[in-house]
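Bit of a strange request maybe. I'm writing a small parser for C-alpha cell strings and I need a real example to test against, not something I typed by hand. Could someone generate the C-alpha cells for this chain?
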Amino acid sequence: MIAHVAESAVIGNNTSFGINAIIMDDVKIGSDCMIGNNVIIYPGSEIGNAVRIDDNSIIGKKPLSSPRSIFKVDDSLKPAKIGDQCQIGAMVTIYVQAKIGSNNLIADLATIRENVTIGDLNIIGRNVSIENFTKIGNRNKFETNCYITAYSEVEDYCFVAPAVATSNDNYMARDPERYKHFKGITMKTGSRIGVNATIMPGKIIATDGTVAAGALVSKDVKEAEIVAGNPARRFRDVPELQLIKNNLDKK
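Reply from user aminoacidic:
Good idea to test on real output. This should exercise your parser:
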C-alpha cells in the first residue's frame, strides 16, 4: 500500500512518504521532510521543515483513560506541533497537545505525553518517557530508559543519565490527600542526575546541583553541590571546571 495523504493535508515541497504512511485530515507538513514507513500522523498535527520521522512512529495520538485513571482525557486537547529540523526515531509516540521546538533528537521508542512542552536542541534518548504536564527547556540530554514523571520542570543544559527514575506521588496511590500534592521534580539550569538515581516527589535540584549514580534524593539539592548515597547526603562541591558557566555550547 502506498501512503495515504488526506485531501485536506497541506504538504510542503520535496517531502517524501514511506509505505503505508497515514497522514490524516488537516495535517500540515513543511518542506524537505522524510516520513518513514507505517508512520501515522493524526488530524491537525503540524510538522515543521526538514523533519525526519522514522518507521512506525505516531504523532498526535490521543491518550487512553481508565475509570480508575487520575488523569481524565480532555476532549479539547489541541494537535501536536513539531518544530523545524527535528529527528524522530522509530516507534516513537508523541501525544496530542505536545509542543516540540526545533532541532531536537528524539530517539527510538521514546514517549512524549500530552501537555508536554519541549524547547530546542534537546537530545531525548532511546526509550525515554516524558510524562504529561512537563516543561523542558533547551539543550538538555535525557539518556536511555530514563523516566521523567508528570508535573516536572527541566530548565536548560541539564543532564539525566540512563535509568533515572522520578516520582510525583508521596502517597503511593492510597490516600485522597495525594490529589492536593502531586508534584514532579524541578531541575534548574545545569543540574545533573547520575545513572540509576531516584528522585522523590517535589524535589528541586538547584543550578549545577549534581546527583551521584544510584543515589536516592529525598531532600532538595543545593546549588553546585554533589550528593550521593541512600538517602542522598552532601558529598562535596562540583569542581569548577564542571560548572555550567564553563561548559556552555559554542554555538
